[in-house]
Design goal:
The chain is of the alpha/beta class. The chain contains eight helices and ten strands. The structure holds adenosine-5'-triphosphate and magnesium ion. The site of adenosine-5'-triphosphate has 13 residues, from strand 2 and helix 1.
Length: 280
C-alpha cells in the first residue's frame, strides 16, 4: 500500500549549506497495518511523513501509494498533527464538516457525516462548542473526527498526542485502537514515546539519526485490543530501549568528540525514561 523506496532527502539551509535529513529510508506498510515511526528528536520522522503526505516533492528515491508515485497531497491520505489545527471561529461540528464542503457534498449530508464521526470520537455532547471551550484531549478527538470524515485510506499522524497529559493520552490510545479496529484504516503514527508506539502498533520502525535512517524494525504480535499488562509488550519495549540506548550513546559520543565514552545505559534509561514507558 505505502512503499518508501530508498529515499534520500537533502535540505538546503538558509546559509546555503546542505543537510542530509534522510539516508536510504526504505520500508513499506501493508493495507490496514498500524505502523509507528519512533526515533529521537530531529531524526527525520516528520520529514518522512511530509514526503508521504505529498507536501514536499524534492527528494531522491520513490514513494508510492497503491502503486502510484506520490506527487502531491491526495484524498487518500489525511494528516493529523500534534497541533490540532481546528478553526477557532467554527464549532466542532462545523470544523469536522468543513472538508466535506470542498468535496462538494451538500449541507444536510455534510452535517450528518460530521455528526457520525463526532459520535465515533465520543464528542457528541460538545458538537456545538468552539475549540477554546474544549480540553486538549477533546480538541485532538475533534481533529481525528475531521480526518476520519474525509474517509481516507491512510491516516498519517504526527505526534498527535504529544501535548496531552498521560491519562488523556491513555484514553485516546484506546479510542484510536478502537477506531482502527472498526475502520481498518492504514495508519502511520509518529511518536518518540516508546510505550505509545508499542501499545498501538503492529510494527515499530526505529529510526537512527544524523542522517535519519531506519535502524531496526520490531514486530508487536500482542493480542488486540491491547492490554497494557501484556508481558509481550514489555519485552518489545525493553528491546526497543536497548536499541535506542546504542543510538543515544552514538549521539553523545559525537557531541563530546570522545570515542571512548560509554553510557551507563541502565541508569540513563531509568532516569531519562522513568522506567518502562517513557519517551525519548
Ligand atoms: N525546512 C528545513 N530546512 C532545513 N532543515 C530542516 C528542515 N526541516 C527539517 N530540517 C532538519 O531535518 C532534520 C529532521 O527534521 P524532522 O522535523 O523530520 O525531525 P523529527 O524526527 O520529526 O523531530 P521531532 O521529533 O523533534 O519532531 C532535523 O535536523 C531538522 O533540523
Ligand atoms: Mg517531528
Amino acid at each position: 500500500m505505502i512503499n518508501v523506496d530508498n529515499v534520500n532527502k537533502i535540505f538546503t539551509q538558509r546559509d546555503g549549506n546542505t543537510f542530509q535529513a534522510l539516508d536510504n529510508v526504505d520500508f513499506s506498510i501493508k493495507k490496514g497495518e498500524f505502523v509507528s515511526l519512533l526515533g529521537p528528536s530531529g531524526c527525520g520522522k516528520s520529514t518522512v511523513l511530509n514526503l508521504i503526505a505529498g507536501f514536499d516533492k524534492s527528494y531522491e528515491g520513490h514513494i508510492k501509494v497503491n502503486g502510484a508515485e506520490v506527487k502531491e497531497p491526495g484524498p487518500d491520505r489525511v494528516v493529523v498533527f500534534q497541533e490540532h489545527g481546528l478553526f477557532p471561529w467554527l464549532t466542532v461540528l462545523e470544523n469536522v464538516a468543513f472538508g466535506l464542503k470542498q468535496k462538494g457534498i451538500g449541507k444536510k449530508e455534510r452535517l450528518e457525516l460530521a455528526r457520525e464521526q463526532i459520535r465515533t470520537v465520543h464528542l457528541s455532547k460538545f458538537a456545538d462548542r468552539y475549540p477554546h471551550e474544549l480540553s486538549g484531549g477533546m480538541k485532538q478527538r475533534a481533529a481525528i473526527a475531521r480526518a476520519l470524515v474525509m474517509d481516507p485510506q491512510i491516516l498519517l499522524m504526527d505526534e498527535p498526542f504529544a501535548a496531552l497529559d498521560e491519562q488523556t493520552r491513555l484514553v485516546l490510545h484506546q479510542e484510536l485502537e478502537d477506531i482502527w479496529l472498526k475502520t481498518g484504516k492504514t495508519i502511520l503514527f509518529i511518536t518518540h514515546n516508546i510505550r505509545e508506539a508499542v501499545m498501538l502498533s503492529d510494527r515499530v520502525l526505529v529510526m537512527s539519526t544524523r542522517p535519519g535512517t531506519i535502524k531496526k524494525e520490531f514486530n508487536v504480535q500482542a493480542a488486540r485490543p491491547r492490554d497494557s499488562a501484556d508481558s509481550l509488550l514489555h519485552h518489545v519495549e525493553k528491546a526497543i530501549m536497548e536499541c535506542l540506548a546504542d543510538e543515544l550513546e552514538k549521539v553523545v559520543k559525537e557531541e563530546m568528540g570522545d570515542d571512548t565514552y560509554s553510557l551507563k545505559k541502565n541508569s540513563v534509561f531509568d532516569r531519562t525514561f522513568g522506567g518502562m514507558g517513557g519517551g525519548i
